[in-house]
Structure prediction request, 93 residues.
Amino acid sequence: MFTYEHLNTAFRILLSTPPKPLIATHRAKYIPLEAATGVQAEVVGKPSRTFFEMVIDDFAEDELLPEGRIAIVGDDVETDLGGGAVELGFGES
Prediction:
């Protein structure tokens, strides 16, 4: 479904008045939509700090964090941890 037509529609929506937010689940390096529109995406998926805070809060509410400990396992430090997890101290051993 990621076609030129859909990308053009997204481009026009982002440039409309009043401006619309660009919400992204992941910061994809190969999609220049931010640069083309001048609209910065609000990333709500990993590796954003917002994503990790939402997950931690959800686990804490459900009392699923024994002794307040949490671990993140992934195969790519940049896309799995990124700045958000590091800001929260998950990049430390």
The chain has five helices and two strands.
